[in-house]
Amino acid sequence: MLTKPASTCLLFLVALLFCNSVVQAAPVPVRFTEGMVRGFLVLSDTGGSRIASGDFLQTSRGGEVKTRTVLHFKDGSLHDETAVFTQQRNFVMRSYHLVQKGPAFEDDMDITLERATGKYRIKVKPHKGGGEKVLNGKLDLPLDVYNGMVPIVAKNLKGAQKTVHIVGFSPKPRVLELEMIPSGEEGVMIGDLKKTALHYVLKPKLGMLKLPAKVLGKMPPDNHLWIITADVPAFVKFQGPLATEGPIWRIELASPVWPK
Asked: Fewest CB atoms within 10 Å of the CB: 19, 227, 236, 257?
């Protein structure tokens, strides 16, 4: 078994489940509009061993953009995350859907979240026995909730620091603050060309819950995101867990390899 209970990710930040206070929302302005994109992804452990492969799929229709990250694990597990958003002046998430299932995760989970109504539906099926549980309810969502959109948001920050929100599921949903902190530039090779990527550290803001989290040994780890910012911004790499208390994994872009 590779990880513990599933939650929301990439994009990927589920360990931030200790803070549920909501501050005044400040949605991220659109500087680069999103359109049709397809990218190939690999998921590796910190030792560089590939454990999953997949796709980043993005389409635009009727004023909405649909972005989807799909990872197929070697053990048959699946991580499938979809966000639908608008980009009129500001980025605003409209809906979110996350599926995690298989031996890579302690529980199978199917999560849906709608902005218009605030309604959520969570189906959880433990692998260790017990029947499927279904949770339904409503949340008061700030305008800067960005589940499944963190890399897109980072591409539009111009290297600035920003605090946004995501909804974490444990499986009970909580609105969490996420601080996106630029941490310097790093060199990266694209073929024979050297490029520069901006490193973002993604931190939870626990407030008064920081001390209890330390005492319980449940301080969420920092997550990391690398974005090329020159000319046209682009995602390069994400590093962090995809599930609560799970191992640190890396998501990177991949190129097709032709058979010999």
From this structure: 257
47 phi and psi angles, rounded to 5 deg: -85, -5
Residues 138-168 pLDDT 10s: 999 999 999 999 999 999 999 999 999 999 8
| CATH number of domain containing 52 | 2.40.360
Q: Which residue shows structure tokens 């409209």?
A: 94
Domain-located, residue 62: yes
Q: What is the pTM of this model?
A: 0.86
Report DSSP state, residue 210. H
Distance, in Å, from the CA atom of 53 to the CA atom of 50, rounded to the nearest integer, reads 8
**The one-letter amino acid at 164:** V
Q: By residue range, what is the domain housing residue 244?
A: 37-100+142-254
Specify the number of domains making up the chain.
1
Q: Which two tokens mark 75?
A: 């053990």
Looking at the domain assignment, is residue 133 inside a domain? no
Residue 199 in 3-state DSSP? strand
The distance from CA 22 to its chain's CA centroid, rounded to whole angstroms, is 19
CB 178 within 8 A of CB 204: yes
